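Exercise 4. Each item below gives a protein and its sequence. For each, produce the structure-token representation.

Item: Man(5)GlcNAc(2)-PP-dolichol translocation protein RFT1 (Spizellomyces punctatus).
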Amino acid sequence: MTATANNAPAMATKDSGGALSSSIKGAGYLFLLQLSSRAATFLLNNLVQRVSSIQTVGIASDLELLSGTVLFLSRENLRMALLRTTEADSPNVSDPSTKGEVDVSANGLVGNLRKRKTGNAVPKPSEEYMGGNAMQQQKLINLSYLPILVGVFLVAAFLCYHYTVPTHGRPMGALWVYLLAAIVELGSEPLYILCQSRFLYDVRAKVEGTALLVRCVTTFALTMTITSLKSASIFGLKMGGAEAYAWGQLAYAAFLILGYVRALKRQSVMSRLSYSTESSSASLSHLLRPCKIREITGHGKTESFYLDPYLLSVAGSFTAQSALKYILTEGDRILLMWMGRNNDEKGAYKMVSDLGSLIARIVFQPLEETARAFFSRTLSNPTGVRKESLATSLDLLSTLIRFHLCLGTYFVFFATNYSGTLISILYGNTKASTPDIVLALSIYCLYVPVMGINGITEAFLQGVGDSHTIKKQSYWLVVCSAVFALVAYVTMNLFTMGPGGLVVANIANMIMRIYFCWHFIREFYLQSRKWEQPSDMKRSLSVKEMIPGDGKVYATLVVSWIVTYIFPLLYGWDTWKSKILHILLGGACAFVTSALMYASERQKLFGKLREYYRKAKSGKEY
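Answer:
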């Protein structure tokens, strides 16, 4: 503790070059992790959706939304409270006014309290530190069983509602299995909380990653079995396309529990779960057992409880914020259900969003996470930020936006004309002949660069903004949600764009969010008086200066779009010959465009990227 405290000032004043180096390295590791973990699940999901009808995918999307709603409302506020729970919540090691400390038994659980007999003397740090941490872990374990009860209540409430209104064509077998899977998954919450409280991220990643593979394999196997048999059933429940998805979800939930138990029972992991050498031999069932906690308050009174009042109040305070977060995350699918759209449109939108968001998960998410960490580390105290840190952060921000715009040109001018070809290759010619899917994916290509820029600008705001700014952003997000719903209603009902209208609404939503973040970014840099040449700073913040390319590049992009657009109109994409020729034509156009783009951006963009790569390769933390 002492060494950490003494080194804190030195750590806070690390050079921004070292922070930039570690951030770039972190982005590379996260990119490889996302790429490897998403590849297998994407391939299996693609196989499942290829052999499933669009209507089946739409029904499964509705049932996944229902199951996800139960899970989110049951546990998200508790998980957010866990993130806010730190070692500071345990009895203070250096505070002589603390009236009692926890006596930890051999199995690592909280035992009886014993009053301190040392007067104002501070007890041994190791005893109080271990006791406080064990008590805090036990509080979290006790609270982790609450989501199971909440989930059961929500499932019961939904079933009561479901039997009093029309079913809207939902298969009852799949509905029951999805709801059962939600309750089973909530049963893994104590294991999840135990891993999170002890920072066992490697265990969680392995278990959840394997569970995803189990779900995909189970769904694919059942789907293929159903298509080969005229009738099939499991435990008396008639099997259909949606039921295959439901049993895959149940397999995922069951494997979560089995995987966590098996991983946590290993001796090497059990030693990381415990706070003392004696407790390392305790069984996992002892660590997960609910236990009444007795605690002496600051007024000398003894309180006994299972659920800590403070953690309950923190979790309750996050309820409204969790609901808003859920609406923002799943607002598109909620709107589809609320507007009563048919299962074909829901299935088309799910297939397009799963495919279109792949680039965001693999490339954009690692960049956003590392950029957020870098900006927070170098700019978290605006009044004390050095001029070099301001210049480095602005240079990185403008380079990242320029990179997203450069990457976005390929989605806008090339990918939009390859939606039909891609869907035909991945999902078959039948789905490629569905206008709603092709149109929605083409519009989604326009959405990708907007999504990337929004991620970088929001990473800056979340890393640098104070509590007042974050609060203002929350209000702005409510306005964005209202605009999203309005645009979606107009485009889908008045202009009959189907799921493509929902993508247009997402674009409008993202543009509004970028506007708010960009306004904050400009204010942040303009208020600084450390610039020797303010005009250079203003030029760096100019949107015009961030747009990559020149006239030759723009002309080539326009010609490439026209050529790749006309080709499928003349030759179609039904045969493999036409697909290959279309892809070769686009590849040739992309090669010429890339050569001109490199010549134009050799110094401004690619030179900066090479510079950052060299810093990441040879940079030091000092």
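Check: The two ends are 21 Å apart (CA to CA).
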